[in-house]
Amino acid sequence: MILDFSSNADYLVALLPETLLTLAALGILLADVFRRGDRPEPSGAWAAYAAIAGTLVAAGANLWLLLEVDAGPGLVAVDGYRLAANFVLLSGTLLALLFAVDYQRRESMQVGEFYALLLLATVGMMVLVAAQDLLLIFLGLELMSIAVYILTGFNRTDPRSAEAGLKYFLVGAFASAFLLYGIALLYGVTGNTNIADVVDRVETGSAEGELMLLAGVLLLLIGFAYKVAAVPFHMWAPDAYEGAPTSVTGYMAVGVKTAAFVALLRVFSVQLAPAADFWTGIVWWLAMLTMIVPNLVALVQNNVKRMLAYSSVAHAGYLLVGVAAGTAFGRAAALFYLAVYTLMTLGAFAILGLVAGKGDRHMNLADFRGLGWRRPALGLGLLIFLLSLAGFPPTGGFVAKLYILRAAIDAGQVTLAVTLVLASLLSYYYYLRVVWKMYFEEGADHAVASTSGSFRLGAALCAAGVLLLGLLPGPVLRGFERAGSDIVGGAAATATIEVPRPDAPANPTAGGPAP
Length: 515
Known about the structure:
Layout (H helix, E strand, L loop, with lengths): L1 E2 L4 H7 L1 H21 L9 H23 L1 E2 L8 H27 L5 H19 L3 H19 L6 H32 L4 H10 L5 H19 L7 H8 L2 H26 L4 H23 L5 H22 L2 H29 L14 H4 L1 H15 L5 H15 L3 H27 L12 H19 L2 H12 L30
Parallel strand pairs: 1-2
Helix pairs in contact: 2-3, 2-5, 3-4, 3-5, 4-5, 4-11, 4-14, 4-19, 4-20, 5-6, 5-11, 6-7, 6-11, 7-9, 7-10, 9-11, 10-11, 10-13, 11-13, 11-14, 12-13, 12-18, 13-14, 13-17, 13-18, 14-16, 14-17, 14-19, 14-20, 16-18, 16-19, 17-18, 17-19
């Protein structure tokens, strides 16, 4: 089936996964209203299972688009890159739903609107990665952000959750303002918000006002930097991650980062490649700072949830190395990294939420003492996730970092590659501190709750995925390589641009690879 976007029906087909997920969210809301009426009691686990069913249906529609549908240029991309990213997002949503069942029941937050908001946030993420127009990027970003703001402050009985939601909302509003102002400047320079048309005008030199063009690109980059929590735009992340319900923190850490990075890669490394001399050096410095600063801060954290929050910021730095590489393999390596990051981060936060207990009270390092002996399965799962986050073989985290390193070295970004290795070595300390507490210190004084079937299934899928992607990464990486090459980018997709790199030699023959 070929879409030419000559009618609105073509867009409905192109956005079929998003449409189905939206209908599932609205159906959960309506069913919950009619089922509960005026009764205040929780909705029950049915809403979670309905959301899981809706996610699986959307994944099936995404697979159909991948296998059966081709499309011409339009406001929505129907390419392998978008659909591969959708699978990562939907997988993260499915796992987050499996983990949320226990947590929401324990915290008496088992209500239909929680699962509806989570699905709507995923819809915003999927719109963001599909967008070929700057305004559509903004709409996807706002749909995602508003739902996540509410989810962050969802536990209204906890002041920390309310504070985290407010902080996230205020900083998110600044990020949206930067992004929207950047879009306005690009529109003012080029007279269009379609990214392909903007790029055509940049390439042909028909865009007037180079200073406005530079400012528009920089503001666009700052908006994305806020969303991926890149240093120095990361200050909201530790507070928001720590205060949010743990079932939301894991989803927020993987979903928002995946969607924002996929959109960032599409817009900058492909579509705005002709303007690469404007932004490459800035991304280089963002990657450098985001790898170093959060790893140093995480060393002194005793709250494990906050430590994992700084760890999440550091992983954004590793992913920015793939953006700085600006190659098809860099995009593939970033997608692979995001897939592994989704599994290991959701698994780690899920076990953290279980250990923390009701009200998320037990989150200090001391609360993990003896966990490996008291609850061997939980201890083994957390061990796998922490080793993968650190980058130990044979986990998926090791292979993901290896592919990012290869992309950086192939692109001549040797300094970034060396910094990535050193930053990863630095992170070993705070990850292995948790492991030491679990296996080499006497047990903590609080009991860890039993797990349900959905939690065990989610944890098993995460652990198996991390190990499988570490031992047999080839098929998945080849699929992501095809996706990284199959990306709609207008004229910029085929342009050959010589991009200045901060750490590349001026003369390629003087040593090191050519940029």
